[in-house]
Amino acid sequence: MLPDSSQLRAGLIVSVQAPEGSPMRDPQVIAAMAEASLNNGAVGVRLESPEHIGAVRRRCPEALIIGLWKRTFPDSSVYITPGWKEIQAVWAAGADVIALDATERRRPDGAQLSVLLQRAKQELGACLMADVDSLDNGLRAAELGCDWVGTTLYGYTEATASLRPPAWSVLRPLRERLPAEVMLICEGGIASAQQARQALDGGADAVVVGTAITGVDLQVAAYRRTLES
Questions:
Q1: Does residue 1 carry a pLDDT above 80?
Q2: How far is CA 186 from the centre of its chain?
Q3: What torsion, rounded to 10 degrees, do the Cα atoms 152, 156, 161, 163 define?
Q4: Distances in Å between the alpha carbon of 213 and those of 56, 68, 94, 172, 209?
Q5: pLDDT in tens, 107-128
């Protein structure tokens, strides 16, 4: 069953993640940050790894969870839920929405995006969020059956390395050309409440904010670098 989009529109989704090696990466810390986000009005949380998804599901059983699993492989630069194993694990852990890389890049072992999406729909009945980097890839993901399209990878792929998020330039074209029932999510580079508002005004149905809210490691490091410069 798809999440009720009427409850998500104009909403804030908090990405509750922490880098490898950080003490913030403890599942109970992630779950506490997720609960605090939800208690203060977030409509959902975006979580990385089956372990963290499971921890938040147990602590916040009614939460809307967008789940992914970052894994790296030597034959591909795709790392956000790259294959069927990762899709299954994210779903089994309790995600309501599975987020995955939906760019045109080669996937590990040559897996085909269209096949993965079809299996996720037919075998799991999952709601799918396409993390994309461009207008064309967003439209293609919707054609292939993704229910949500997010600008997550704008500026983070080889084809968009010269661009800097947020993806202001692709929001309006995506909203104008995507089917009305496909949720458009602005994610990546949102550094303030004012920018989140700008994303909604630019055509996004909802906004994902991560580092600016939950990225303790990166935020402290950025302050330190500025103070020492």
A1: no
A2: 9
A3: 30
A4: 17, 19, 23, 25, 7
A5: 999 999 999 999 999 999 999 9
Distance, CA of 99 to CA of 102 (rounded, Å): 9
CA separation for the pair 124, 174 (Å, rounded)? 27
Give pairs for 30-35: CB < 8 Å, separation 24+. 30/55, 30/56, 31/55, 31/56, 31/58, 31/59, 31/60, 32/59, 33/214, 34/59, 34/60, 34/63, 35/59, 35/60
**d(C-alpha 69, C-alpha 49), whole Å:** 4
Rounded Cα–Cα distance for residues 184 and 175 (Å): 7
Question: Using CA atoms, how far apart are residues 107 and 18, in angstroms rounded to an integer?
Answer: 24
Which residue type does 203 have?
G
Q: Are 96 and 126 in contact (CB under 8 A)?
A: no
pTM: 0.97
- Rounded to an integer, what distance in angstroms lies between the CA atom of residue 14 and that of residue 49? 15
Distance from C-alpha of 168 to C-alpha of 186, rounded to nearest angstrom: 9
Distances in whole angstroms, Cα of residue 50 to Cα of each of 102, 124, 129, 151 = 20, 16, 16, 23
For residue 42 the two structure tokens come to 């977030």
Q: Are strands 44-48 and 11-16 parallel, antiparallel or unpaired?
A: parallel
The amino acid at residue 24 is M
Write out the two tokens for 225.
């670098």
